[in-house]
Specification:
Subunit structure: Dimer.
EC number: 1.23.1.1, 1.23.1.2
Radius of gyration: 20 Å
Shape: globular
Protein name: (+)-lariciresinol reductase
Order of helices and strands: EHEHEHEEEHEHEEHEEHEEHEHHEE
Bound molecules: NADPH dihydro-nicotinamide-adenine-dinucleotide phosphate
InterPro entries: NAD(P)-bd_dom_sf (IPR036291), NmrA-like (IPR008030), NmrA-type/Isoflavone_red_sf (IPR050608), PCBER-like (IPR045312)
Pfam families: NmrA
Mean pLDDT: 93
């Protein structure tokens, strides 16, 4: 089967650059949106040039220029968007509504993967303020995609390992401590951590797979379903030393959260749902068609469900 041509939007981002790499590695003709609005951001420009050296094609286009998006979309079969959606960096999820309009007008796209890659927003209808904005905005985009009749796959990638594991699941830390760790509650809620390069590889693997068409794809590596205590144990074994442990209760966590700025509060809300409520691992994936696929890649099991 001929491999789809892919357009990656947000290609210089934290996840986007990995999607470009994975798409090229898996032999797809890969296009990356080059936004003139990048201006003199030398790091982005150099990254784009390095993509080009690796075989990607750069295509000019801007969210402020509808026709440029339509023209870019017309070059390919599949569009993957990895636009920003983390408030402490930038949150532009709703800009994708412009992309949905362009894809609808172009009319040639076989699959659109919007910027999701986290907790399944469809399961977060009772999420707390202010962090629920992430899920609400992603649901607005989903509705627009489905209303426009655009074929899609939603990738629920759970926790990016870099953000969560690096700091032993302590908000605000991305490097592990060597002496002391603060457990969120009893530290026993299970979460799911996925390496960002794996997220990109699985995302690209799914684009030509008819089994994932119009479905949500959950990335749930069985060995990566861990509680905070289990994460800490792995680190303790590595450094040959036990960490001193304290814990922060749910009430203290929420009270402290309220003293933070808006962007921090959004992130902390997500930690709350993951680490105190166990929102990622406290449900079984419903497989209406009883289909379980295993891609043998770092022993990850991928489960599909109908949306
Ligand atoms: P980044 O913050 O790295 O930004 C990605 C890209 O968004 C940028 O490189 C840029 O693309 C584009 N962008 C930013 N602002 C604008 C704008 N004003 N106009 C047009 N384009 C813009 O994104 P992440 O990689 O951190 O996030 C990608 C997705 O992953 C999001 O949906 C996010 O919610 C999710 N995520 C999930 C996590 C988890 O733990 N599950 C953790 C982090 C993110 P360009 O290349 O064109 O400049």
């Amino acid at each position: 089967m001929e491999k789809s041509k892919v357009l990656i939007i947000g290609g210089t981002g934290y996840l986007g650059r990995r999607l470009v790499k994975a798409s090229l590695a898996q032999g797809h003709e890969t296009y990356v949106l080059q936004r003139p609005d990048m201006g003199v951001d030398i790091e982005k420009v150099q990254m784009l040039l390095s993509f080009k050296e690796q075989g990607a094609r750069l295509v000019l286009g801007s969210f402020n220029d509808h026709q440029s998006l339509v023209d870019a979309v017309k070059l390919v079969d599949v569009v993957i968007c990895a636009i920003s959606g983390v408030h402490i960096r930038s949150h532009q999820i709703l800009l994708q509504l412009k992309l949905v309009d362009a894809i609808k007008e172009a009319g040639n796209i076989k699959r659109f993967l919007p910027s999701e890659f986290g907790t399944d927003p469809a399961r977060m209808e009772n999420a707390m303020e202010p962090g629920r904005v992430t899920f609400d905005d992603k649901m607005v985009v989903r509705k627009a995609i489905q209303d426009a009749g655009i074929p899609f796959t939603y990738v629920s990638a759970n926790c990016f390992a870099g953000y969560f594991l690096g700091g032993l699941c302590q908000p605000g830390s991305i490097l592990p401590s060597r002496d002391h760790v603060v457990l969120l509650g009893d530290g026993n809620q299970k979460a799911i951590y996925v390496d960002e390069d794996d997220i990109a590889m699985y995302t690209i693997k799914t684009i030509d797979d008819p089994r994932t068409l119009n479905k949500t794809l959950y990335l749930r590596p069985p060995q990566n379903i861990l509680s905070q205590r289990e994460v800490v144990e792995v680190w303790e074994k590595l450094i040959g030393k036990q960490l001193h442990k304290s814990s922060i209760s749910k009430e203290e966590f929420l009270a402290t959260m309220k003293t933070q700025n808006y962007a921090e509060q959004v992130g902390l809300t997500h930690y709350y749902h993951v680490c105190y409520e166990g929102c990622l691992a406290n449900f079984e994936i419903e497989m209406r068609q009883r289909r379980l696929l295993s891609f043998i890649l770092k022993s990850t099991t991928l489960l599909f469900m109908n949306t």
